[in-house]
């Protein structure tokens, strides 16, 4: 059993961020395996006003309202922890990292839920939550992105051990459900400029081309003056408790990847795993490593144009559509649950604790 301290962006509010879902699953499974977990979260207005999980059923949340409050009130927690994890996008994260590294006596890890964005920002010297000099000081660099990015982290940024710790899904919350089908194609994601062209090509253009079909886009921060086709329903915010019903109400769901993550590859989104766990067939843009997670046309559909999306919507037999969704679900249950991630994390930490001669090669 380990005492674990996690300093992350947010676990209490899923508004406008995908971090909360990942942390919730991770903390729950860590506690189930006997670990004691404390999550430290900056108390900021935009999350305070949108909290959908103010108290954890597993572990505990401690809020702090400033760096001084964190530093003065929680030094003992960090010093006594067997594992300290600092996450990406933590406010004033570089200062938080320095403080954590200065006081931690156990294993230290940086958990990058935004790895391609982080590395691109580091190249431009525009990160506030991590810096080049801090990366080699952590025992572990846990990355939402796998593949060649792990070697790059070690080779170019000096990470001691870069290991993939992908997002995950909770199979107790995401599963096929008997609800009426409301939409032919849906998308769940916060607005991002670099995702907007794909949303235009893969959902809005098909909607305009097929006025009789039904579409939906759920997510925050879309421009107020954006013009939506009449057959595209908008949901401004969809809390995690409503995700399962959302996916199960679609014939297909759309996965769109940010530009930096397409460039790096090997960067699955939590929405991809959530939809697949519900047995909803996914139409995704293409990126390197996707075919190592799901078999194209057997467990996932891929599209790069409106015509390809419309082809799936209008020409895929129901038995094929359902079979693809079910095969993706089985793959997720086998390899991509929060319980799987916790076992991976435990292996990585044990590797740090092992004598040098017993440590495996990266």
Describe the structure.
The structure is a single chain. Helices cover 40% and strands 17% of the residues. It starts with a strand and ends in a 9-residue tail after the last helix. Helix 12 links the parallel strand 12 (282-284) and strand 13 (301-302). It has helices at residues 19-32, 45-48, 67-73, 75-80, 93-103, 115-123, 148-157, 196-209, 243-248, 259-264, 270-277, 290-293, 306-315, 318-335, 338-353; strands at residues 3-8, 36-42, 60-64, 83-87, 107-112, 140-143, 162-164, 183-188, 215-218, 232-235, 250-255, 282-284, 301-302. A 7-stranded parallel sheet has the order 3-2-1-4-5-6-7, with helices on both faces. The chain has a 6-stranded parallel sheet with strand order 10-9-8-11-12-13, sandwiched between helices. It has 362 residues and is of the alpha/beta class. Helix 8 packs across helix 13 (306-315) and helix 11 crosses helix 14. The protein has 15 helices and 13 strands.
